[in-house]
Amino acid sequence: MLHANHTEKFAQATLDAISASLVVLDEGGVILFANKAWRDFSSANGGDTQAGYVGMNYLATFDAATGMDSDVASEMAQGIREVMEGRRALFVMEYSCDSDTAERYFVGRVTRFEEGGAVRLVVAHEDITARKRMESQLAAALAQAQDSNRAKTSALTNIQHEQEQLHALMDNLPDQIFFKDRHSRFLRINAALAKRYGISSPAEAIGKSDADFYAPEFFQKTLAVEQQIMATGTPQLGVIEQETWPDGSRTWNKCSKMPLYDSQGELIGTYGIATEITELLEAQARLRGINENLELHVAERTRELEQVNQVLAVQVRVAAEASIAKSEFLANMSHEIRTPLSAISGMAKLIGGEPLSVFQTDKLRKLEVAVKHLSATVNDILDLSKIEANKLVLEQSPVHIDGLFGAMASLVQEKLDE
What we know:
The protein is an alpha+beta fold and 418 residues long. The longest helix is centred in the C-terminal third of the chain and has 75 residues, at 278-352.
């Protein structure tokens, strides 16, 4: 049985053996006891190295806290007061309290007990930095695993989508697609080739070969080509094949065949794609016939046009000679007319210098107007030659309407008087 003194020493030794930093507070928040871990932590952080702040008001330090830690201090002080006042039996709070060199995390726990009618609080702070780091590492590892799983799931989904898209593409292409094993037996064909073979589903062709659909001579030919491709690893691209069917009919394909390898790089057969070009070749033959007929027609029309051009050349030469003759005639005629006109104009001027009666003066004036009009007519005739030679120059000059009409009236006045 322990005595009171021994009991106190036992309790202190027990509390000093605890790794958590622990203090006992009175009902005013003053520190009554601090265990070894508390004192060591206080010493390591520049605090009281002996008593561990015994006698100091612990609540007051929280109330006075400022800066970044003020929120944590306020929450801790509130929890201590709630336990002290009996509003809760236990208060627990995790918080960070970094040193100058490292991040640190702690958990604070506050409980109460009564001693001789007085309320006492036990406040313990335990370093949980290692646990927090482990939790952080576990969370990161879990997140990484989840990311990896999501990536794998996404990859599998993408592969599935790609396969679905590939299947959709194969079954909707008009070209014929096939995969064969090393013995030229079908591993898979698309819907277009199944339709060409007259079967209801591409699956019906699996395990069969060209011998089941074509005439023997065509099967032997394709078998030899596929064996050569597998032996050499050299593809056959864009080769035009004449297919022979069991009923003797013939069609044409443009086919490309390649060696087929598995994921390990091992040769497992051949695959290829073929496009039926029977209608295209027939259309090309018809087009060649049309082109030949067209060339003959063009040659015939060319000969006709050459003959027409020869006739036109003769006509052009004759027209040119006629034009030259006309120009010469007009020039000669204008010269022949202009010469007597000059004489008449000169004579009129001489007569005008003599004394004349009013009647004679009027007649002389009309003669001069007629001479000018005839001279203008000769000039107009010469302008026709200039037009044909592209040498006519247009001139702008004022027109006196009264004078123009007066000249016209004088020319026809005698006819009117008669």
